[in-house]
Design brief:
Blueprint: E1 35-40, E2 47-52, E3 55-58, H1 70-74, H2 78-92, H3 99-102, E4 106-108, E5 112-114, E6 123-126, H4 130-140, E7 156-159, E8 164-166, E9 171-172, E10 175-178, E11 187-190, E12 194-195, E13 198-204, E14 223-230, E15 233-234, H5 235-241, E16 255-257, E17 262-263, E18 271-272, H6 290-295, E19 297-298, E20 301-307, H7 309-313, E21 319-325, H8 326-329, H9 334-342, E22 353-355, H10 371-374, E23 382-383, E24 389-390, E25 398-405, E26 413-423
Parallel strand pairs: 6-22, 8-16, 9-26
Antiparallel strand pairs: 1-2, 1-5, 2-3, 3-4, 6-7, 10-11, 12-15, 13-14, 13-22, 14-16, 14-17, 18-19, 20-21, 20-25, 23-24, 25-26
The chain binds calcium ion (CA).
């Protein structure tokens, strides 16, 4: 497995002629250049762009893309993705002769509508967060929280792509069948235990033919990059429906994706080794490679913010309710997920989305990626500014994820945000 290299495009002193990109703390400095899709106010046409500072560069208007189909971009070979990054950095660097022409291809982010970065064909959700799997397992099986397959198989299920929406798309509280404690039969009612799940989304670029597994050494060549992802979950519906086939309607009512794909090329400086704890079973060969051990993980700091309708009305800022990290939380890497997903010959296609699963850190409720863990199954509410308390989410609550990669000697890059508000149940 060869990873995207660290090169001159990651130099921390590199600056852009777009001044907003040079500001401290900017999510989208010239070292980032995430891919997304946008539409101008007077147009129904989606266009592929790259975020830079507070602007988006239209790839077609800049002469970098032949036609509007984002699949063309998703299917680029790793070397062509790298060449595109080099052209972008050359043209966006301070002093570039391309500045005059490319200035006409810029649009302010504040004036465009951002869409899903691509059409999501299929969506698979994994369960790589071992601290989450352990904490949730403990609620049901205190003596044996992790099921015996967990350290052998990257567990996943096939989710629903039709209700994956871009950040900022609010959704109604789902209704469904729940079994009240002690009742003889279930009832249909609005979900009373609505939750979020802090995840990252891997966007598939090039696909694989049916019947042709992707070896772990080639797996990352099939992944474009990472997004922030919220797998909203109806815990009471889930508890009643999940056995024996897993989650279904407790998940498929809404899932929220951030609009920007941070590419594996941009993430090159933030790779980390991926060690398995001592005593864990040895990996089966198709899930193991030296490169995956040395640099399979990606260090992304993740924050969860909550603000309620009452907090917004009173002028309170969103409260950070959890802080986690992808590399600390994940038992399986992106390359392992692709290798496992295709080991049976399953075909992945450009634009498929692989959710990681809930990325709770090892540090308990302050690092937990769901209200189920933060509130200890609904028993320990959190306090919010203005005196409100929460176990699960109420109508009007807005949950926002942010993500950032930082490392000494490199420019920090961000993921934008993944945010949506819970609307009341319909009917
Ligand atoms: Ca999930």
């Amino acid at each position: 497995m060869s990873l995207a290299p660290i090169d001159h495009t990651h130099a921390p002193q590199l600056q852009s002629w777009i001044e907003s990109a040079n500001a401290d703390g900017c999510d989208f400095p010239i070292q980032n250049l995430p891919w997304g899709r946008f539409r101008e106010a007077d147009s129904s046409e989606w266009r592929m762009g790259v975020a830079i500072g507070d602007q988006v560069l239209d790839l077609r208007r800049a002469g970098l893309l032949d036609h509007a189909d984002p699949v063309q971009l998703l299917q680029l070979l790793p070397e062509d993705r790298l060449a595109l990054r080099h052209r972008l950095v050359e043209g966006l660097s301070r002093g570039s002769p391309k500045a005059v022409r490319w200035a006409t291809a810029l649009r302010p982010l504040a004036q465009v509508r951002l869409g899903l970065p691509c059409t999501i064909g299929d969506y698979t959700d994994f369960y790589v967060g071992i601290h989450h799997a352990t904490a949730v397992g403990r609620l049901f099986r205190p003596d044996n929280p992790l099921l015996p397959n967990y350290k052998w198989v990257p567990i996943g299920y096939h989710g629903r792509a039709s209700t994956v929406t871009v950040s900022g798309t609010d959704f109604h509280r789902p209704c469904g069948q729940v079994m009240p404690a002690g009742a003889a039969s279930p009832v249909v009612q609005p979900c009373a235990r609505l939750d979020f799940e802090l995840e990252m989304g891997l966007v598939v670029g090039r696909g694989n033919a049916q019947g042709r597994p992707v070896p772990i050494g080639e797996a990352e060549a099939h992944v474009v990059g990472l997004t922030l992802f919220n797998d909203w979950s109806a815990r009471d519906i889930q508890a009643w429906e999940y056995q024996p086939l897993g989650p279904f309607l407790s998940k498929s009512f809404a899932s929220t994706l951030s609009p920007w794909i941070v590419t594996l090329e941009a993430l090159a400086p933030f790779r980390r080794g991926h060690a398995r704890p001592e005593g864990d079973p040895a990996l089966l060969p198709y899930l193991d490679s030296p490169v995956n051990r040395e640099a399979g993980a990606i260090d992304v700091a993740l924050d969860v913010w909550l603000d309620t309708a009452a907090m917004r009305a009173a002028g309170h800022a969103p409260q950070r309710i959890s802080a986690s990290n992808y590399a600390d939380a994940a038992y399986w890497t992106a390359a392992q997920l692709v290798a496992h997903h295709t080991v049976n010959g399953c075909a992945l296609n450009p634009g498929d989305l692989l959710g990681t699963g809930t990325l709770s850190g090892p540090g308990g409720r302050e690092q937990a990626g769901s209200m189920l863990e933060i509130s200890d199954g609904g028993k320990r509410p959190i306090e919010l500014p203005g005196g409100e308390r929460r176990t699960f989410l109420q109508d009007g609550d807005r949950v926002t994820f942010t993500g950032r990669c930082s490392r000494a000697g490199y420019r920090s890059i961000g993921f934008g945000s993944c945010s949506a508000t819970v609307l009341p149940a319909v009917g």
